[in-house]
Every structure is written in structure tokens, then in C-alpha cells.
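Following up on my earlier message about WT7. Here are the inputs again, as you asked, copied directly from the submission form:
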Amino acid sequence: MTETTADPRGSYPPAAAFAATANAGQELYDQAAADRDAFWAEQAGRLDWQQPFERVLDWSAAPVAQWFVGGRLNVAYNCVDRHVLAGHGDQVAIHWEGEPGDSRAITYRELLAEVSRAANYLTELGLVAGDRVAIYMPMIPEAIVAMLACARLGLPHSVVFAGFSPTALRQRVDDARARLVITADGQWRRGKSAPLKEAVDEALYAHGGTPSSVEHVLVVRRTGIEVPWTEGRDLWWHETVTPASPEHQAEPFEAEHPLFILYTSGTTGKPKGILHTTGGYLTQTSYTHHAVFDHKPGRDVYWCTADIGWITGHSYIVYGPLANRTTQVVYEGTPNFPDEHRHWQIIEKYGVTIYYTAPTLVRTFMKWGRAIPTAHDLSSIRLLGSVGEPINPEAWRWYREVIGANRTPVVDTWWQTETGAIMISPLPGVTTTKPGAAMTPLPGISARVVDEMGEPVSHGETEANGYLVIDQPWPSMLRGIWGDMERYRATYWERFAEQGWYFAGDGAKLDTDGDLWVLGRVDDVMNVSGHRISTAEVESALVAHPSVAEAAVVGAEDPTTGQGIVAFVILTTEATDTGSALIEELKTGVAKEISPIARPREIHVVPELPKTRSGKIMRRLLRDTAEGRQLGDTSTLVDPSVFEAIRASKEAG
Ligand code: WT7
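Thanks, got it. Here's what our run produced:
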């Protein structure tokens, strides 16, 4: 492949050779513009439907959409069985790389047997379509098998990131009223076995006398660590699933059957159970994985570095790629174990062709230095993807130049837990990309950048900032918040209710060419290393400490993680320790209560917090302080002098 260089305006047209064989061409935009429904019906044709749908979209009960009405299909059949039936049983589905260096290659035929065994055993446990299953597992093949077995049986799964605390797990188990938890004894973390089953036990322990809804805990042996055991409730995977029959007949479900719940942070402390369903979700994840990553089944080796605990793992490790008969790498551990060469060694070992990661990791690689990746043969790579937060142009260029040898396309993909699949992204064979821009809505997707009133921000002459909204329903959109449809309406559909638009919570800008740049959250949600954490949940973890009377949390710019958590706390009169030991204790407390990702970067003890007359904390001003900027407008503050005191204590601390 030839190098392509930036045009004088700093943008990158696709290489002719790439464009010539690309899965998606300009005609996709034209087809979708001409007839959206026909376009999505055609994309749905990528799947095997046991019963064809009668109608593409029913939006009469907006904002709850029904896609592919009347159709019936089985997600696991589409992700596994049909590839084996088509003669691809010997193709590797998963090249799994364990953190300690062990590995497993799992073919589609083997994956089918594993998923069937698990489905048979879950049925034996008495689980029936509609029952919820919580999955709290490290990145091991059984986690993917568990998700697919649930999908096969119509059991909505709720995957809880294995780095989350027992409290967070319990909250999610309770909210979904899960009957089963699937977990592992422990997980490898930088050479050490961290307990997981023990965390499950702590979560399920009858807090304040309230027993959980969980009847059984199914445990995969991964690290061999000692585990506490409750006879009758706890079950070993190798004693139950492994001996089960590898034959299982998949039954089709309605297109709108719930597929999974995934909890994400909102502007209040309570996480939202985002609900996704079957037919539309699988259609859009399959279509976008095909079009955006230009994936060629049987030829490409694909690697998405996300964890299955996040939506990226659901959509671009499990459902989209497997529906598309992908051969993919799944890696259990961290990028710097045993050293910083790990990712590049894995790429060399398996000949990875498509690599999808997050900007925070790209910036970490930059920090470690280009000598590390350049010591490896990365010539197999032909496409790079980015997701999770805005990628700064410098990181974008480094990614393309150092990892992509200045010849691979880079696709910056904007989407959310709520959107289920990629919404705004370049198409690698079509789009002339600009470092840092997500560029344009995909064919079939319609978005706008608007002002407070919903008027389009002007573009052409000057750049214009506004709110990012989606003005047409899309197949993989969320269908609600589990157990709280009112919150669903209020969170996403109230802001532009008159127009009937979905408000994404992000700010965006249109440049003078009309191309779209996502600027980040405009609400009280922080983005730390691509993970959403609400200011409210960190604040509530802080005030849980007896020494803390009040807390205000902001996301401040961070060169590596995108945003870093900065907290301002007022101490209670009982607080005896006010020094660094307390700060450390508070940081550890938040990490333990929520997850290590939520650990504040800085905590400042202050005498007062800046409030408006209505008592609302002015986060904007705290952000100015945290980022060391001149203060913005302080006229609405009750007591403008509060900042003198805050600054003094920040400098002292
Ligand atoms: C929020 C969604 C989508 C999977 C990972 C995160 C931010 C995501 C981009 C991007 C700029 C991005 C947004 C969005 N975001 N991708 N390419 N450019 N910002 O999923 O946890 O639901 O977070 O992540 O702020 O709203 P999530």
C-alpha cells in the first residue's frame, strides 16, 4: 500500500487502493438519503430472520421505537450457528490471549458447542426467556460464551464491569432483579489474582437484612484462588456447564425482545439501566462493523481493546463482529503487563489488521514513546479506530503515523451506550478525514448541531458550536431505562421535546466545511479514560465519609485520561485529621465505593463552595479553578469572595 499524505489543509483522503476494495462507498449515503426505511431493511438483510419482518419502523409510540416489526430471529444463531452451517466451523472466532501468557484459539464450531452447553445448563437451572442474568467476569472466553448463551435463551444480561465494587454490583443486581450471577473465582491483574467471587459474596450478603434476588452463582475457575462457597447456591462452571450437552436448538425471539441491560452514569448518582433489544441492535452493530471497519470475514484479524463491561465490548467484541464472522483477538490483561510491548507483540503474533482503541490509551502509548511500537512489525495493520472521547489532533496524527505507518485510515467513531452502535464516523473508503473530527453521520443516521432553541448553528463562514441531537430514530437506539420510563423521557427527550429530537448530552461544532467535531459532555457527566462517571456519584461517595460535610466534583482537563476528577470538600466540625492521610483515605474510599476509575486525581479541602442564590453549585467556576484559568462570570454567586478562600487552600494543599 502506498503512503497517503495530508492535503494542504491537513486532511487525509482515502488511499485509492483502499477505496477500490472498501465495503462501503459513496452510494450508501445516496441510498439512505433516497429511502431510509428501504436502506435499513437492506441492512437487516445481513441477518438470518426465522420470520421476516412486516414493517421496518413503527415510531407511533415515540420515544420508544419498534424496529423490524413482526420479525423473529435468534441473536446467538446469527453470531455462531449460521457460520458453522455455512461451512466456516473451522474458522477461528477468538484468539484469546491470557494475561499470564496462556492462550486459546476457539473456532466457530467450538464456540457453538460451548454456547450450547451453557444454554442447556441455564435451562436446567430453570431460567426462562425474560429472566435477568448478571455477568461479572474478567475478559475470558467464558464471558462471551455466557453473554451468547443468555442471548440464545432470551435472558437479558446485565454485564457489570469486573472492576466495579460489590456495592455497584449489588445496586445493579437489585435494580434488574437478576436470578443468576455468572462470575469467576478471580481475575489476573498485573500478575496477581484479584478476587471476584469474594466480591460477589460481599455484594449478595444480606445488607441490612435484605436478601438479593439471586438464586445461584455460577463460577468459572480462572486463577485458582481460594473462594468462599455457599452450598446449594454456588456452582462451578466446570462441574455443570462443561459436562452439559453441546447440542442445543435456538428458538427465535421477536425483534423487540430485550437483549441486554447495561448500566451507565447519568447526571444523578443512580446509574441508568440502558435497555437494548434484538433485531435493530444486531442490524446496526453488524452494519457499522462492516462499513466503518471495512471488515472482510475470513481475511481480517480484528482487535477491539475494550472490556465486555462497557458498551464497546458488547457491540464491537461480541455482537457486531461475531454476526459478521470475524476472527478476533481478545486480550485479558493490561497493556503494560509484563511490559509496554504487550499490545504490539499481540498484533505481531496474530497479524492483527484492524485495531480499535480509546484516545486515552493512544496518549499513554505516546507517553511511553514511539521506540516501543516501532520495535515491532505492525505492517499487518490496515485500519485504526478510536472511540470513547474526543481524540485530540496530536494523538490522532501520532496514531496514524506511528501505529499506522502513515498509510492506514483512522476512523474516529462517535456513539454512546444509549445509541448502541456507531452513529457518526468517517467511512474509511470514502471520507477525507480531519484529525480530531468525527466528520459525518453514517448513512442511515441523521444528526444536527443546534442552539438552545433548536435552530441549526450556522456554518459556512465561521465555525459554530451547539448541542448534538439525533433527529431520526435509529435501529440500535435504546428502548428505555430499565424500570424507569419517565426518567428515559426526561433525560433524553425533554430538552428538544417540541422537535422530537434525542439529546445526546454532548456539545459539538460544525466547521466551515460542515464537518462535525464532538466537543464532549455538556452535562454533569465526566469522561475519564473514556469511562462515564457522574459528578453526583463521586460527590455522594465523598459525603459518605463522616469527615465530609459537602463535596463538589468537576472533571478537569487531563493530558492522559481526557478528564481527571477534581473534588472540593468542606469538612465537618468533627473532622480531626485534615491533612494528607484524610485525602488519601477519601480517594481510596471513592475507588472502593465506585471503582478505581473514579478515584479522584485531586481533593482540595476548602472552607466554602461557590453557590448560586438557588443553592446550585457552580461547577463551571470550579472547573476554571481546577484548570488554573481566570474565573468566568461570578456575578450570580452569593459570595464572590469564596474563590479567594478556595484558591488559598488549593495553593496551601
Ligand atoms: C460518551 C458516551 C461509545 C462507546 C464508549 C463510550 C463520548 C464517545 C466519542 C468520540 C468524542 C466521544 C461522548 C459520549 N464519546 N465517543 N469519538 N468523540 N466523544 O460510551 O460510556 O456511553 O459514553 O462518550 O461524550 O456522549 P459511553
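One observation from looking it over: The first helix runs from residue 16 to 21. Hope that helps, and feel free to reply on this thread.
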